[in-house]
Amino acid sequence: MYVCLCTGATNQTVCEAVARGASTSREVAAACGAGRDCGRCRRTLRAIIAAASRRDTAPSH
Ligand code: FES
């Protein structure tokens, strides 16, 4: 699914940027370009970051 229409970044692209350490929409933009242009997708970027960080901190058992 496209998250950022300006750069053509998909949720997969954004997830990879988050997995590599991006923890803000600004860092995602630096890592993969998503959110760098019009900014309309930043809310979605933050939702993806929040979902990813919840997964990281969730207990595994
Ligand atoms: S839709 Fe992502 S910067 Fe425009």
Task: Briefly characterize the structure.
The chain has three helices and two strands.
Number of strands: 2
Note the beta-strand portion: 5-15%
User: What proportion of the residues is helical, as a percent range?
Assistant: 40-55%
Largest sheet: 2 strands, antiparallel
Strand-pairing-aware structural class: mainly alpha
Form type: elongated
| The number of domains | 1
User: What's the average pLDDT?
Assistant: 93
Please state the CA-atom Rg, rounded to the nearest Å: 11 Å
Number of helices: 3
Q: How would the blueprint of this fold be written?
A:
Blueprint: E1 2-4, E2 9-10, H1 11-19, H2 25-32, H3 42-57
Antiparallel strand pairs: 1-2
Helix pairs in contact: 1-2, 1-3
FE2/S2 (inorganic) cluster (FES) binds at residues 4-6, 34-41.
Describe this structure in words.
It comes from Mycobacterium spongiae. This is Bacterioferritin-associated ferredoxin. By secondary structure, the chain is mostly helical. It has three helices and two strands. The chain has a two-stranded antiparallel sheet. It starts with a strand and ends with a helix. The model has no long low-confidence stretch (mean pLDDT 93). FE2/S2 (inorganic) cluster is lined by residues 4-6, 34-41.
From the structure above, extract its key features:
61 residues, Arc Repressor Mutant, subunit A, 3 helices, two-stranded antiparallel sheet, 2 strands, binds FE2/S2 (inorganic) cluster, mainly alpha
